[in-house]
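Reader question, answered in our methods column.
A reader sent in the components of a multi-part assembly and asked whether the whole thing could be modeled at once rather than chain by chain. We filled in our standard form and ran it. Here is what they sent:
COMPLEX SIZE: three components
ENTRIES:
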Amino acid sequence: MSKTNPGNFFEDFQVGQVIEHATPRTVTEGDRAAYGSLYPTRFALPSSAVFAASVGLDQHPVEELIGFHIAFGKTVPDVSLNAVANLGYAECRFHQPVVPGDTLSTKSEVIGLKQNSNGKSGVVYVRSTATNQRGEVAIEWARWVMVHKRVPADSTADGAPETVIPDLAKAVDATDLIVPEGLVFSAYDFTAAGEPHRLEDYEIGEKIDHVDGVTLTASEHQQATRLWQNTAKVHFNAEARPDGRNLIYGGHIISLARALSFNGLANAQVIAAINAGAHASPAFAGDTVYAWSEVLDRTVLEPGSAEAPGIGALRLRLVATKGRDESMTLRGEDGKYAPGVLLDLDYWALIPA
Amino acid sequence: MSKTNPGNFFEDFQVGQVIEHATPRTVTEGDRAAYGSLYPTRFALPSSAVFAASVGLDQHPVEELIGFHIAFGKTVPDVSLNAVANLGYAECRFHQPVVPGDTLSTKSEVIGLKQNSNGKSGVVYVRSTATNQRGEVAIEWARWVMVHKRVPADSTADGAPETVIPDLAKAVDATDLIVPEGLVFSAYDFTAAGEPHRLEDYEIGEKIDHVDGVTLTASEHQQATRLWQNTAKVHFNAEARPDGRNLIYGGHIISLARALSFNGLANAQVIAAINAGAHASPAFAGDTVYAWSEVLDRTVLEPGSAEAPGIGALRLRLVATKGRDESMTLRGEDGKYAPGVLLDLDYWALIPA
Amino acid sequence: MSKTNPGNFFEDFQVGQVIEHATPRTVTEGDRAAYGSLYPTRFALPSSAVFAASVGLDQHPVEELIGFHIAFGKTVPDVSLNAVANLGYAECRFHQPVVPGDTLSTKSEVIGLKQNSNGKSGVVYVRSTATNQRGEVAIEWARWVMVHKRVPADSTADGAPETVIPDLAKAVDATDLIVPEGLVFSAYDFTAAGEPHRLEDYEIGEKIDHVDGVTLTASEHQQATRLWQNTAKVHFNAEARPDGRNLIYGGHIISLARALSFNGLANAQVIAAINAGAHASPAFAGDTVYAWSEVLDRTVLEPGSAEAPGIGALRLRLVATKGRDESMTLRGEDGKYAPGVLLDLDYWALIPA
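And here is the structure of the entire assembly that came back:
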């Protein structure tokens, strides 16, 4: 019997099945530096231990997306090695900041299955949970992927499992957002953070063009993807695709767009939840990526005053595009994503209120 | 009103104005590793905690240029986002070593202004100071940049500010050099450091060809530049230049040349001051960079003996070239930089005496 | 006299000579992250501090190859700067794990010399020892390289040194393998480690195709090689070779193949010894590298039980290829390495038994 992992196929999943993913991973200050060399991030909280302490945190968290990518990467060999496409995310909540020294492990429960009518693949829904070395939940999320069948059936769907589609929220309710223990914005230093804008300065429906573009390189996305121990072949093996080009890991685009969004959203310091996400089209080395954001909602979690800000939550749509689109158009008249849209990410960020 | 930072234009600066730059940044061991992956540095002091302790330091400093690039990077969004060119540096002194755990913040004071006769741009002189988490000065320097005007005037210079040109020293006086607290070379290990040469072995006027060349790659200079949170578009966005090529960050060439200078200057362990610097021509991925040095001056700061070296200071011109120039020619007969010269950096280094 | 290091030529070596190599190097968590960004490594022990503690280690080691590459890199400026080829390795043993905070220094003793009959070069055999800041041996190994003569002699071999060929073992004897202090596999977590296979599951002669391929990039191999302070020009200077292509550092291929071997050898957690190694052909950016392994031997070092595994040692041949060779052919009928074979590495790994 082969000793290597062929990955799971659609037939290998059952609703209720729990998969403990391999390779726990300790986060270090080295990850913070590597992340900073790969993404133009300048958010004051993960950049500065002094700033983190000034907002009440007793340790210096890394970017939320470092934790997310690591936790996510663990699920790839078991869940999506034979994936056709990563279809969506939902109900992702960050339960507590990840700090250097934390060791993350991930497990996933299969929460839904739907064989496609072509009999060749099916959609697998999983809820994944990353825990730290104390067994506490750090991050949880749901995602669904289209996975090849080992043995394609004909279209009569003989032997297909019962279709179960989980009931996933369109967005995390603001009342379910978790504020990191100790976080206070009452002594928030807007000068150090780089912008004066607070929750109240953002209007629902407002769009922000983040201006700057970054040209993707082959080495950088591979280094990032490897850092998260993500093994999907299409990112590393130019021979694995007919066009000889490596596909950029979708999470690379998420991190890049989030970093670019500093310019206009410098005070959206903490990602509290990811409501939904779609990778609208693939990206390749040589593409120049820009980002824009749309304010979808805003709410005060802990009231403050002019002098001593409280904590607010801003629900944002973060859009990455190939080439700059100053019109900030998400979809064409046909309802499809506009050409050039790479990513449509809906998330909640904490910001002084 | 736009929430994004358009950068300052020439009209936005006034002499005496103080700008507190955003995003304090904590330096970590991750930065040391990232730096070591990007530059072929082998100086024993930043390489080895044991060596650092053997020369009297109670913590293990990172390369001086890590501190400089981080501190410098913070000034870019406020000072040089709309720069035409970075014209020069002066009076840069390293007040104390930067060690992992230090958090650097930078502020700048405008110390001079001169509108150009074409009315389209002007020169802005700033003195910048980086302080650590204890509020102590870590690094200070002056630089001047040519910045676009927001609204170009005609050549009559209507509305131009009064011209103020600061009096900047051609070089930091040796008596103003700061020796890091505790530094002693009395038990200096020349074998571990890699070369036997002491201050006395270098003659004023001597030139040293550092032999080795490094071919620049697009990923590496971007990773370096990002690590310093330097946001200048020309380094990241291939669409930002008509030729579709990213300009290599000048500081990348400084760090590369300094690292190459190990071969012949292995004992020039500590950069104490930068007297002047000019980026003579731009560099691009694919260029192969070499370096040579010229000894400009030397002085004993703390006398030693044959057995127990003291501390000396070597004033060096560090020249980076595109392609190797074994003749080590700085300028042609016309007084202009010779073709191929990328960098002309004048600095003081501490070395066993 | 030139202050720069021209490297040693064949004439500069004498049997019995001891060379203390320059630049001690402190290993940090930054190195772990950099390594993880450059190689797709997922072995649980170096990935997770929690896993390391669960197998009895009181500190969190980095990959053995990080220590090896750093220790090896130090020998390059003195031993192989003028090398024609790196011919082989033998008797490499890892005496104790390298952990962040350790400072490695390396010295080498010349143990053999043989001038080539063409009079232009000769083979130099050295035994190198890396010690940590406590003066304890961390790693030792022998290697032999072909080095240019400074002054080529005619084929009469006038003035050639007496030929001394050291007696090097074909493989480290299993009884000489060193188990890291404290290491126990009795509570080994196979789920966390990613595979269920123990020593007994591997048959002598068994071959394992590690499936995945990685396309090499210019930036990545340079960053890796620099991280180890390896100064060999052919890796960095595209002008140093007629074809304008940088040669990939052989150690890069070793690390890449070892990381790929996780898929099928996930429990081969600790490299205990390297018996032999040959770089069969050069690799370049753009090549896609695959790996396969062959089980050469196996032995129980500390007996265990089904519930509480002991410690076994697996002797493995690790082969890296350019392009995938599912037939896993090492040599052609002519006895030469099959086309596409890049690396043939013979090593011992510790695995639950």
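What stands out: Chain C has a mean pLDDT of 95. Residues 113 and 182 of chain C are 40 Å apart (CA to CA).
Send us your own complexes using the same form.
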